[in-house]
What we know:
4-stranded antiparallel beta sheet, 13 strands, binds pyridoxal-5'-phosphate
Amino acid sequence: MKFDKTKNFATNLDNxxxxxxxxxxxYYPKTNSGEEVIYLCxxxxxxxxxSVQNHIDKELNIWQEKGAxxxxxxxxxxxxxxxxxxxxxxxxxxxxxxxxxxxxxxLHLLMISFYQPTDNRYKIIIESGAFPSDQYAxxxxxxxxxxxxxxxxxxxxxxxxxxxxxxxxxVKTIENCGNExxxxxxxxxxxxxxxxxxxxxITQAAHSVEAIAGFDLxxxxxxxxxxxxxxxxxxxAWCSYxxxxxxxxxxxxxxxxxxxxxxxxxxxxxxxGNDKATRFEMNRNFKPxxxxxxxxxxxxxxxxxxxxxxxxxxxxxxxxxxxxxxxxLISNYLAYLIKENLPQIKIITxxxxxxxxxxxxxxGHSTFTSITERGVVxxxxxxxVIRFAPHPLFNTYLDIFNVAEVLKNSINA
Length: 413
Ligand SMILES: Cc1ncc(COP(=O)(O)O)c(C=O)c1O
């Protein structure tokens, strides 16, 4: 699309936006003077859908009225309400999905199964500067096997003077590691730069050397279109409090490709992974469900899941094709306004991206403080990056026009 710098252009885009009606389905934080903020922080915590309250109230009422009787009639199968919508969200078969626990916990559970180093094949490829929790989880999994992270992890670094990784370099690193490579574990979208990786190419490269391909999709789910099943990805996990708008600490989703469902390898087991027909017979031996659900350990956190059901209903109605299309368009529009108005700003997000745009501004932190004081919610990541993440369901193009103006005024102040 050819952009232009006028306010009219933004208004026109809004008037023709097929998703504009979704804006009123969310609550917006307010500034001290009572105006709605411009909220560009969907990559940190998505806003609350108005429908969440009813979903939580319903479960509270059932608990009040039925106590434990709610268990068998409703809550025992509660997480299954998320299976179909989540499968559509990430391009999976229903059997490949389960929502449970928190993201880092799930990465641990998945690595317990899928990271099985041998004397020859033990290396793990990660992005340099991966999200710290992922690095801690990977380091500690390596140590559980009596290995040293320093000799085990290979970090993918951008070329000199570049900020993002080139797919060809990722593939080359995988091929060079060859039969020493046990697993690739990367983000789907990098949390810092907003780069969306070519998950299909990375998975193919990993499989060509018989390694496992796993992904942390915290910044990808609800942001970009995914085809986890068709891309033949082995496993993935994501959180649902960011773009998916399910509230602080909302539960995580996992994907395990169906080819792994007849699993004989290691796994941490619990009663919620046991065959549903015999679960309450309380037998001594674990009999796994024959789907991704067999990785479940505990019964579901109902009050954490209820908001996710509300927000997934919204995402499912819209469809990820439309969500990701607007996400890219709205961040391209922001990039255009920045390039036109503020050439001193460096955009570090590459062409392959979702809705996040990361920038480096001279005097970055004071600019960040100034735009925050002017009612823009975005975030700062050390040492020098401001991240903007316009959300396709609740941000307008006029928001973006206004943010570019605020940025200009803050920098020129
Ligand atoms: C990329 C990434 N991985 C992991 C995490 C940690 O998530 P949790 O606290 O849900 O385990 C986050 C949190 O923001 C994240 O952005």
